Amino acid sequence: MSRFAILPALAAVLVLSGCDREPQESPQESSVEGGEAAITGEIDRRFAGELMPAANLVNSAEEVINLGALQGRPVLVNLWATWCAPCVKEMPLLDQVAADYGDELSVITISQDMGDPGKVAAFFEENTLANLPQWLDPQLALGEAIGAQTLPTTVLYDATGQEVWRVTGDYDWASEEARAAIDEVVETPEMP
């Protein structure tokens, strides 16, 4: 089989694994099995030990934060976009992770939307995401720095700013597997 015959199959796999980096008129769909969107991501430890990039993020109030300044406690960084269906699906789950872990874990959601930052604020308001910050990466520098080719991409950094693992594609953040993976670097909070 020639390498040119493999390229279309590889492209199909990449498209089905999550959202590409280009906005669409409506949210992109993820893989579907039995009428429900299938989870496409899995924990990947190949980049463990990589340092958290010192990228600048902004919010709708034009406040700036440097991601590197968050060292000192574990940080779960999620790159997402309002037009990405798998991203939209997992946002309530990430909001619950932020609520459950409180001060033990910083859950940072970073929109890759271009243009009007008001659409991100509107998305948060419509979806009642009270525990997540509304950061934007207007230059898409963070995605480039960590090599994110697909959205969502979520990376867990330990308190020293070193990557522990990442997930490319959507993931069930309410699962026992997800919580056990987060607990590797976070002292488990007392659950009610």
Give an overview of the whole structure.
There is one protein chain. With 192 residues, this protein is of the alpha+beta class. The chain has one domain: Glutaredoxin. It is 28% helix and 19% strand. The strands form 3 sheets. A 6-stranded mixed sheet has the order 3-10-9-6-7-8, covered by helices on one side. A two-stranded antiparallel sheet has the order 1-2. A two-stranded antiparallel ribbon has the order 4-5. Strand 9 and strand 10 form a beta hairpin. The protein is globular, with a radius of gyration of 16 Å. The N terminus is likely disordered.
Mean pLDDT rating: 81
CATH fold descriptor: Glutaredoxin
Specify the helix fraction band: 25-40%
- Highest CATH level, the class: Alpha Beta
Major pleated sheet:
6 strands, mixed
Tally of domains? 1
Q: Count of DSSP E strands?
A: 10
Q: Give the amount of beta strand, in percent.
A: 15-25%
Name given to the CATH homologous superfamily: Glutaredoxin
Q: How far is the first residue's CA from the last residue's CA?
A: 57 Å
Radius of gyration: 16 Å
- Class based on secondary structure composition and strand pairing: alpha+beta
Poorly predicted ranges (pLDDT <50, ≥5 residues)? 1-17, 21-36
* H/I helix tally: 5
Order of secondary-structure elements:
HEEEEEEHEHEHEEH
Map the helices and strands.
Elements: H1 3-16, E1 32-33, E2 36-37, E3 43-44, E4 56-58, E5 64-66, E6 75-80, H2 85-101, E7 106-111, H3 118-126, E8 135-136, H4 141-146, E9 153-157, E10 163-168, H5 176-183
Parallel strand pairs: 6-7, 7-8
Antiparallel strand pairs: 1-2, 3-10, 4-5, 6-9, 9-10
